[in-house]
Amino acid sequence: MAVMSGVEVDVQGAIATVRFDRGGKANALSHEMIGALEAAAYRLSLDPDISVVVLAGTSKIFAAGVDLKDERLWTPRGPAVARHLSMNAGARMTTAWRRLPQIVIAALEGPAIGGGAILALCADFRVMAEDAYLRFPEVRLGMTLGWGGLPLLTERVGAGRAKRILCCDEAIGADEALTLGLADRKVAQGAALDEGRKWATEIAEIPPMSLRMTKSAIDAHARRNWAEGAESDQFFLAKLLAEGGGGA
Known about the structure:
Blueprint: E1 2-4, E2 7-12, E3 15-20, H1 31-45, E4 52-56, H2 80-87, H3 89-98, E5 103-108, E6 111-113, H4 115-121, E7 125-129, E8 133-135, H5 149-157, H6 159-167, E9 171-173, H7 174-180, E10 185-187, H8 192-203, H9 208-242
Parallel strand pairs: 3-4, 4-5, 5-7, 6-8, 7-10
Antiparallel strand pairs: 1-2, 2-3, 8-9
């Protein structure tokens, strides 16, 4: 078991469980935790013995988005390169998770908001507890959805519904998420991680090379849209922040 900056990685056979916990602060994603999550994904990507990764927040909350008080993520001044790197930290992290060669199952308890919801969408499958929900408040806050979230959300629910979810700041509960294809299984409160591990055990019985090749082949078709969309949403987010937000 390895622990770094609130991110715990536990490997049991062909299954890795990654849990991130700030010990409070609504499990918001700080610069330090984002870096630790990216590093964890990178290390897992190099492990040929792992077939499935289960990703979870705490027992009460997945993640309440990015930590808006962490200035390292919103560097308003300083050299251009430093500002670029800080603003793209989240995008690098979600890209690392989206590109993992292993199957990724996100186990959601409670809210997954903003960047936390985008991280959940990077998984191949999502198990949601009955009290879990996804929410993307960025537009209402004067921003656009960054971190590669726009192409991921649009791919799953379609352009029209993606606009409605974002512009109306809709919270998507487990039942609706199942209907929209944003969730794959719904379980009782407190049971998401156990169900994720159970599912991972079933998937890990599949020959590992065929599992990886199947995921790679499917993702190759979608990656063209991901790459173009991810670049544009980061551009628009940076532009809005540089101009002081999207207000009048």
